[in-house]
Write a structure and sequence with these properties.
120 residues; alpha/beta; Rossmann fold
């Protein structure tokens, strides 16, 4: 099964604190969402060394496939958000978008924020 890396995992990889080897196989690519890319770019731009961090991000993005937030993910997002609201639960908008993209593609999300994504 292929994996989608949440933003927090990407940050740890970019900081050389996390090895992606457990998630990489010869026949399965590694994915990130366009939403995660936007969060990573934001973090790089506001850092004390934006050029260095943007270059590292660019290099990282060459090694993964970026999944878009397209109309299918948008429809999934709407259904997820409505369902969570009916249950009196909520997660952050960006996390919800990442979840929608991941579910739309039938992939598995790798995150340190298990509580954000543990809703039924």
């Amino acid at each position: 099964m292929s994996f989608v890396l949440d933003t927090d995992h990407c940050v740890e990889i970019l900081r050389n604190r996390l090895d992606v080897t457990p998630y990489v196989t010869a026949d399965e690519p590694l994915y990130v969402t366009a939403i995660a890319v936007s969060e990573l770019a934001y973090g790089a731009h506001k850092s004390s060394r934006p050029a260095q961090h943007l270059a590292a991000l660019e290099q990282f993005l060459r090694a993964v496939i970026v999944l878009p937030f397209d109309e299918h993910a948008a429809a999934r997002y709407g259904a997820l958000k409505a369902n969570l609201e009916r249950q009196g639960q909520a997660i952050g908008e960006l996390d919800l978008q990442i979840a929608a993209v991941t579910l739309t593609h039938g992939l598995r999300l790798v995150t340190h924020n298990q509580a954000h994504f543990a809703h039924p």
